[in-house]
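Protocol step 4 of 5: obtain the predicted structure for the target chain.
Materials: sequence only (see below). No template structures provided, no constraints applied. The aim of this step is simply to have a reference model before the mutagenesis design in step 5. Sequence pasted as it appears in the construct record:
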Amino acid sequence: MCPRGMLRRPKPSDSEADLLREQEKFLTSGAPSSANVVRRPDKRRGQAGEGGQDNVANEGRQRDVVTIEDLPDQLPSLTPAPPKKSRFKAGRVTFEDEDAGERLDRHDIHVSAILSRIVERDTSSTPISLPAHTGMAFPKVMHRSGTSSQVPLSSAAGKKSLFARELAAQRLKEGQTALRCAPEASHTPERREQNLPPDNSMETDQRGAAGHQPTAVTGAGRGVGGPDSSAESTRIHRENQAKLQAMSQSEILLEQKKLLSQLDPKLVDFVRSRKAQSGPSSASSSKQPQGENSKHNFPLENRNRQPVSSDAALLFKTPPEVEMEQEDEEEEVLPPPAVTEKDLLLKPQKEWVNMDKLEPEKLEWMRDLPAPRKKGTNKAMQARFDFAGALIPPTEDLPTHLGLHHHGEEPERAGYSLQELFLLSRSQLIRQRSLALGTLANILSKARAGEYRSVLKGSVVSTVLDAGLLFLLRFALDDSVEAVMSAAVHALKALLVCEDDEECLDCTFSWFRGLASFPLLPSAQEEEEEEEQDEGLPESMKETAEEKEERKTDHDVARQDVVKGLLKIKLLPRLRYILEVFRPSPPVVQDVLQILTRIARHSSISATQVLECPRLMETVLSEFLPASWTVPSSAVPQSVYGLPLAGALKLLRVLATSGRHACARLFNSLGVRERLPCLLSVEPAELLVEPTEALRITTEAYRLWAVAAAYGQACQLYIDLYPGLAKTLQSVHAVLSLADPLLPLQLQRVLALLSLLTQVTHTAGCHQELQTGMVSCQGEECPPPPPVSWGHVTGLQASLLGHLRGFVKDLDNPVQRDVSLVVIPAYLTYLEAYYHQLSRQNCFKPVETLQEIERLASEILVPLMSHHAFQGLIDNLKSSSLVCNVQSDRLGPETAPSLPGLACPGWRDRPGVVSPNSPVPLLTALGLLLETITGIHKGLSNKFTSLLLSEPVTSYLRSCSQAMPPLCHSRAWLVRHEHHLLYLLLRLAHRLVSIEPEVAKHASLYHQVALVLLPWLLPGSEYLGHELLSTIIFNKDFILEAHSGGPEAVELGELKLQEETHQHTSPSLQTVGALLREACIQLPSIRGCFLTHLAHLEPSVLTSRDALLGRNPWISSHLLPELTGPSVPSDWPFLPLVSLYERTGLSEGGGLEVEDLPQGALQAVTHCLQWLLLLEVWREEALKVILPVAKLARLSCVFLCSSDLFLERPVQKLTWGLFRLLTRRSRLDSLDLNVPPPGLASFQDLYSALLSQFEAVSFGDRLFGCWLLLPLQRRYSATMRLAVFGEHVGMLRSLGVTLAQLSIPIERFTSPPEDSLPLLHLYFRSLVTGTLKPCWCPVLYVVTLSHVNAFIFSQDAAAQEVEAARHSMLRKVHYLTDEVLRNHLLLFRLPQQQAEFGFDLYEQLPPIRAKRLASVLRQQQGRSDHKGD
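Step 4 output (structure tokens):
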């Protein structure tokens, strides 16, 4: 209890009544308060206390300042305060030597300049209200006690003095009195119309609020009114009202549309804004009539907040918006009225401080949410997601207890937008940050899986990356709250890692070369653009790659490459800190390991940074790959520290894939070699971890070991753990035959073990070669021989062969069939490695090996190929192909250019190379084994003819020969496996085509597939391309036309064409058959020529050979080269020609003679042209990937390489033949010279070089002339014709190609008539000046005659300038002294090849032309007479 006379402190249990009672007791006691309220002076109103009664009246609205005794008003300044700066001083420019008095006089303005601009407002039409008459001598003194009752709330709003409020109340009272004192006015018809209740008004106002009645614009106070202006405005207003009432609703809307279409949109927006501003104020009581209408009016507060009705809003909307509103008018629901005092559950009391005024806008959040937008709307809406990342439809009405509604821009819609999630992720509340980051993670996971592609516009991943997601997540990783940090790690993992991609890569690990992969680098387009910008700079001024990288900001790096951007902002040290210090929960640890794995897949440089990050790998190995551990206390441990993790082993495996040195560092320096035996020396059930995780750990351990063995490393472990491996192999059938729920994991474990044995076999097969090499290397660098030799692996073959025989028999068992089809490819791959290395050993016994291979073929391979399960699998070959089904992934996952992916989501449920029903792994493994055993035992080849001639394989090859698959990163790693399959099928065809007639019938198909496969091959497959060039592409056995009357058939076809067209062509066409026969004879030399010009690929070919042939000790990395394009360009048949031009044409300007060219250049060009002629005649489909304009541009190098190369007889014959083929009528339409050829900015640049070369060295060559005439066709750009008749007009004297020699129809040059006036002037000038004559240039003489004749006699309407040019040319033609040219221009009829000059003439001037000529001459005569007068 408090002593008497003292006030007690308030308690939490006190009610509001207790607080008010204590307040009254304090006030009556008169005790001094502990805090005083003082008034600070207002700089804008003067010192405190000034202002008289206005300050008293506004006292309640001033800001209170509470001060406590003995406490200074301001905190002491710790540092000197900065000097105050004027806002206006910066805008003034002064000079030190300027006189201040002069500056003052210059800126001083006389008072007359101000007074002269004062214009008095026109108040002639302003109504004047006199004060009301009272019976008192003086006006009544205003007292504060009466203001609150006299002044309505609406007029009291804002900062108005008591005096102003009193005047407003008085005027309101006078207005009401005036209305009540004029009853006679209400009986007039006009007044009755105004006082009609809303039920009788027009339809637009029936649904409107009372405060939105039509108003009249009077112009009062603007100088436009007069004595009768008010009456005139009222009359016009009444007339408008009468017209509106007589119109229907549809007529009103029609007039609205007409009006809005005529008005300026800015004016309409201004009227709308003024209408919105004047709406509440126009509803005041002084403007509303009383009487009957009062019962239809809302209370004053409600009217001020009432929104405009839908029909009233239509009055001020643009036509498209009106149409949208009319479509949704039936579905639109008007918003409810504003909150009033009656709607409040708790009524405000007078005693509550500052609670006497109702604020409806602040109470809007208390009302129920409006209904979501109904279906049928055509408007795009912002995407909103729930906490699981699912997209919420805009029409779905979810309950509020789900927590998805919030006070955002659209409170009626559930869910969060990306913008709102970004905002919440930086919230001060921990729960909001973690929830926002978790939601973003779920959204990114679904986006990477492609779930939004069909419902959202744009890419979610690209949008969030552009919005700065990387930096947002990086900041969140630095959060000290573990929940927020964990959510950020999960979101980063969702952004970088696609689990379907990782599963797909793991599934293909046991395939042929499945352990190799492409680096996940983005395309280098922007870097190429930067290099193009530096091309013109000297070498000393060009920036190095390191300088360019240092100059880029973090944002620029992240925009081009997400992983590189993360490395630049120090992600790796932070992840190490999280693992080492935070020691997070198991899911976070798994996420961190997956993030590190994805970074290691980016490139070898990124993998090196992961390895070299201080204490990162040491932490991973010590905590998640320990040498010993204890059994977890629960099935789901709360911490994974101190336990082995499969994710850690996978990270090590990906790091080892990046290079030989990284793998050696892991096994030797970081102690992986000592940890693997701990995981593999016992069965998975004895690993003291959960069974599923145990199988995953064992599988990843085998895969990591297989990668190391693929470098020839860690092979000593094979010798040490051989008993355990043999025991595991013995139990394979038993493990895979059980109906175990863990069977998929057991299957992956067996496949990983077989991959390990395959790589160990390859390494052991190289032991003898390395041992011999060490003796003969004589000091040169040579890899040391591995500890495992061939004798260590020979004992495995019999056991694995028995396994394979058992699995082939299990194909008859429906239960075991699927398992057998999965493991058989791995066994076939192992046997291929065994027999491939066996044939290279000294202990190789040919007779025993051939017998063994025969038993393998008859007992296993032939039954396998004839089994119905195998045949059913092959039927899926075409549907599983990525080459044949280009459009199959149109709705694939989302990827960003800076974050490439593998496009694997949903790979189990759709046809594809990796799907469970795909025959690609089985056919590839079988083809690999057949390639090896048929190379050892060539007599076995015919046993496998049925595979090559089967309908599914033939149909698949035919589809591939016509396919044009695009090159993209998401498809490359899978297409690589299909390329292996195609290559192996072609190699089998190469074995059989010379011995099997049935196979030889399809030789052209195989040759076509080889031709299209060569430019498809990706980096890392250069050896396959070399083998195709060496064995198939230039092999005469695959060109059936070469020895089955092909050349003769071509000659007969050309002769038939000549008879049908009655054209005498050049003698070169009659020699195409002979040229083809010569090309077929020279095929070996042609092959040598192309192999020589591809010699720059030799290092890549050798590297690829080592990887594909299992030469493991020579492999430096299993990370394939960067995917910058195919290993061989698509225009490789032009390579010798283009190479010679780059060596001599560019540097020497094409002025070298043939004798001065590099040795063998003429022979190389001849072989190149022979090969091109052969392909154009017999393999036209193989060249369809090359644009016709690109073919023409590359063949033009014949004329630009040398001054006389095109004059050499073999070169000219072949070029003539190619020109005839390129200018066939079926080809001319597809030749588009307006498209720039690949490698050139435009064809016009190349054509300018050809013109210059023709003038310099052509000697009037007809072939060169035809080449230059081709681009002058009417359908191509006039730029090239302007170049000929402008700067290169001198060449017309030597361009002597006749119409008979030109294989292009002359109509393509003359039709349609020329419309370029400058070009027509040049045509006319070349004719009249004698530059162009029919004996010098017959073709262009006909062309120019045709165009000039059509122009001067044209009757088409044209501009005045064009018409004047026509008249001028026609007059000049009439007065020409050269009668021959004059007759040609006036009497030209049509081009005619058999005529003397190549065209027909009229015998006399046609009447229409004579009339035209006479009209022009009369106009000239009239003008001359007028000048004479």
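Step 4 remarks: The CA atoms of residues 873 and 919 lie 5 Å apart. Residues 814-838 form the longest helix (25 residues).
Proceed to step 5.
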